[in-house]
Amino acid sequence: MKVTVIGSGYVGLVTGTCLAEYGNDVVCLDLDPEKIALLQNGGVPIYEPGLEEMIKRNVEAGRLRFTTDVAESVAHGTIQFIAVGTPPDEDGSADLKYVTAAARNIGKYMSDYKVIVDKSTVPVGTADKVQQALLSELTLRDKHISFSVVSNPEFLKEGAAVEDFMRPDRIVIGVADETAKDLMATLYAPFVRNHDRILYMDVRSAELTKYAANAMLATRISFMNELANLAEVMGADIEEVRKGIGSDPRIGFHFLYPGVGYGGSCFPKDVQALQRTAQENGIELRVLDAVERANSAQKTVLVNKILRRMGEDLTGVHFAIWGLAFKPNTDDMREAPSRVIIQELLKRGATVTAYDPVAMHEAERVMSGWKGLTFSQNPKAALEGANALIIVTEWKAFRSPDFGEMKSLLKQALVFDGRNLYDPKRMQKEGFEYFPIGREQG
Ligand code: UDX
């Protein structure tokens, strides 16, 4: 099938590449000439496990191309995915200017039937706006070419996006007519062993599903973070509580890990956008207000522990930080709790040496010029002469360190762990003062 993907960012690139992998003829469009030049020369602008090899394979097979040419890309695909960014406006609502611009471009150049698929995370009602944008262009040309607008939200997790796309737990398709439904069914057939995994619904329900899923997950995390704070002062252990409630199948084990607050490009933005949509429609989502407040407080929980142990003035205190990305297996620094933690420490006179297995380059970019912050090329070197280690992201490589060596490199045997990587009793035995989240300190 001929497919065009508009927007070669995170979602667009993964979508286009994975569709090419199953034999579709895919053109990826982006208006950024530098990005397209990089892709055309075999580079990949983001880090995502498995993506680079898959792009290479499909480009070599002639099934995947990159272009900045709008007319060519519109002419190519019967199915046109819109996967452009929807950055938050100042009021938290999603800015749809790139989505409607993409729709207008399709309207400007299309000459036969197209299915336009909203893949970007867009508020309920966006499909109607896409429809209007297209129609207004088509009317100008006085043409009566038919088209369908479909909502097909993505549920990709960064760090596992290729895997999630290739083996989805569900595919949500909001569609209003049979022609488009049949085309989408054919496109996704290779990705699902049985069609039960494709959920067809009306367009607005599909649009809301995306926000509902992310808001529900964010709610679980904030709830666990608040419970962790309570467990800690009550002398309970949140890790035991987590297991105790997760074994109830109605609750389940996923997304119950307390930590330093959720970050990334989706949860913070989507929770705010959903609140905004609700407000605009006269509905109050009280739960989500609390979810957001709890999350922003959680980002400073580790700092508060540090201040209680080391005093308010951190002048002359040096910290090692392990983990900068908002979660493992990504170089994404958007809304990363590490940014807040480091900023708070520097503000109080401390110095920081940070290490991350993948996100260092991105971290240097977003934190460039921060006085008192340096980066280390390996985790051990970061520990040298530090008064304490702070763990912010749960990369696998941090799970089984040589504790003896860690102790000898640190000036003080202090570990503040925002991801509960170690057993408090073991840490005590190893001679550390250990500060986890939601459990008694070791
Ligand atoms: C999320 C959704 O999972 C995905 O379905 C959607 O398409 C995009 O948003 P992503 O942002 O890549 O994906 O990361 P995710 O793995 O969901 O983690 C989000 C944040 O929650 C991270 O900061 C992570 O550290 C935090 N988290 C996650 C917790 O603190 N505890 C948990 O138990 C799970």
TrEMBL record:
The keyword Flavoprotein does not apply. SMART domains: UDPG_MGDP_dh_C (SM00984). Its EC number is 1.1.1.22. GO terms for molecular function: NAD binding; UDP-glucose 6-dehydrogenase activity. InterPro entries: 6-PGluconate_DH-like_C_sf (IPR008927), NAD(P)-bd_dom_sf (IPR036291), UDP-Glc/GDP-Man (IPR017476), UDP-Glc/GDP-Man_DH_C (IPR014027), UDP-Glc/GDP-Man_DH_C_sf (IPR036220), UDP-Glc/GDP-Man_DH_dimer (IPR014026), UDP-Glc/GDP-Man_DH_N (IPR001732), UDPglc_DH_bac (IPR028357). Residues 320-424 form the UDP-glucose/GDP-mannose dehydrogenase C-terminal domain. Keywords: NAD, Oxidoreductase. It catalyses: UDP-alpha-D-glucose + 2 NAD(+) + H2O = UDP-alpha-D-glucuronate + 2 NADH + 3 H(+). Pathway: Nucleotide-sugar biosynthesis; UDP-alpha-D-glucuronate biosynthesis; UDP-alpha-D-glucuronate from UDP-alpha-D-glucose: step 1/1. The active site is at C266 (nucleophile). NAD(+) binds at D30, K35, T86, T121, E158, K269, R334. Substrate binds at F155, L156, K157, E158, K210, F255, L256, Y257, P258, G259, G263, K327. GO terms for biological process: polysaccharide biosynthetic process; UDP-glucuronate biosynthetic process. It is an enzyme of class 1 (oxidoreductase). Pfam families: UDPG_MGDP_dh, UDPG_MGDP_dh_C, UDPG_MGDP_dh_N. Belongs to the UDP-glucose/GDP-mannose dehydrogenase family. Catalyzes the conversion of UDP-glucose into UDP-glucuronate, one of the precursors of teichuronic acid. This is UDP-glucose 6-dehydrogenase.
